[in-house]
Amino acid sequence: MKDGIILINKPQGITSFSAVAQVRRALNVKCGHSGTLDPIATGLLPVMCGKATKLCSYLTDGDKAYRAALRFGIETDTHDITGNVTKTCEKAVTLEQIREILPRFIGKIRQVPPAYSAIKVGGRALYKLAREGKCTEIPEREITVYSIETVDFSGKELIMDIECSKGTYIRSLCRDIARALGTVGTMSALVRTKTCGWTVEDAVSPDSDELERHIISMDDALSAFPEFYPEPFFARLLSNGCAVSAGKLKGLPDGLCRVYSDRLLGLGNTLKTDQGTVFKLLTHL
User: Fold this and answer.
1) In a 3-state reduction of DSSP, which class is residue 270?
2) Is 262 among the residues known to form the active site?
3) Cβ atoms < 10 Å from Cβ of 15
C-alpha cells in the first residue's frame, strides 16, 4: 500500500520539496506535501503519497503548533536568522516585560507577512519581487493565535511554544513581538510540532529505510470527517462523477464527508445549484 500519508520530520537546511523528493525516490510513487516549511525550519511535514496527493487541499487547513526561538537585538530582511541584518538595537528586555506583552498577540490579530514569502501580489510571489529589489505594499491578513507559552529566556533569546491557525507566519510574529517591546528581533529557529492532529513525535526521517511501514491510510488520515454509505445505485452515480439530489440520499451528513461503497470513493459535500441542493464527490480516490 503506497496510497496514504507519511509524517516526515524535516531536517534543517533542506527545502520541503527536497524532503518530498527523497520520499518519492524511495517509494517510486507520486508525492506532494502539506504546509511548506522554510529551509531553516525543522519538524512535522505531512507527505501525501499516490492517490492521497488529491487530499492535499483538505489536509492543510488544520491548526498548527510550533516551538520558535526569537533572538533580540537584530532584525533581518527575511525576519529569520538567515537574512541580511537591517536593524540593530541594544535595548534589554526582561521576562516580566515579555509576559506582559504576549497577551496582545493572542486571539484574532492582523499580521503583515514577510517580504520573503510565497504569497502572491499582482500574480507574483513576494520573495521574487524582494530578490529583484522591488518594494511592494504587503496586505495585512487576519490570523488566530490560540496560545503563546514561554519555555526559556536567556536575556538574548526567547523560546516559545505557539499554537495558531493556518497562514500564521511565525517570522512575522517574532518581529512584531520584539517591536512591541521597543526593540528588534528575528526568528532564529523553528520546529513545527503539530499539524492537522498529528505530532512530530510520530514523524520519521525522509531518509528512513522503513518509509512504507509508516504510511497512514487515507481512511485514518480522514477520520475527522464523518462516514457516508450511499445506497449502491447512488454510489455508482457518485463514483461516475454525477451529482445526486441531496433529498434522495438517506443519512447524508452535514458538510464534508467520506463516501464509501465497497471502498473509500472520496470526499463529498452538498452544493447549492439552480436545480436545488445536490451532493457530489469533490475528490475521486
Assistant:
1) strand
2) no
3) 13
CA distance 16 to 196: 17
* DSSP codes of every residue in 65-118: EEEEEEEETEEESSSBTTS-EEEE------HHHHHHHGGGGSEEEEEPPPSSSS
Cα–Cα distance list, 284 to 62, 174, 222, 281 (Å): 22, 41, 14, 7
Digit-coded pLDDT (tens) for 48-104: 999 999 988 887 767 899 999 999 999 999 999 999 999 999 999 999 999 999 999
Number of other CB atoms surrounding residue 227 within 10 Å = 14
Catalytic entry in 38, 77, 161, 207: 38
State residue 5 phi and psi, 5-degree precision: -120, 135
Phi and psi at residue 257, to the nearest 5°: -150, 160
CA distances from 61 to 1, 26, 35, 97 (A): 26, 28, 9, 33
* Whole-number CA gyration radius for the chain: 22
Taking residue 62's Cβ as centre, other Cβ atoms within 10 Å add up to: 17
- By the 10 Å C-beta count (0-12 exposed, 13-18 middle, 19+ buried), 68 is classed as buried
Amino acid at 90: E
